[in-house]
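Quick one: structure tokens for this chain, please?
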Amino acid sequence: MTESVYKIIELVGTSASSWEEAAKNAIETASKTLKDLRIAEITKLDLRMENGKVVAYRARVNLSFKYEK
């Protein structure tokens, strides 16, 4: 097995429809500028409300990617 080094960053994705979509938005946005994404871990789910109604779902995601040599 080759030795590797990975960086872990924390992102918050949002969606008007679901937590799954919020997580997907965070990962897909990060993938536009980061390469070799490896693992995503959902660490927290919450939502935003206005006037007693849910207006946004939020997913906090730890995302790892491999450092290039």
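Residues 6-66 form a domain with the Dodecin subunit-like fold (CATH 3.30.1660.10).
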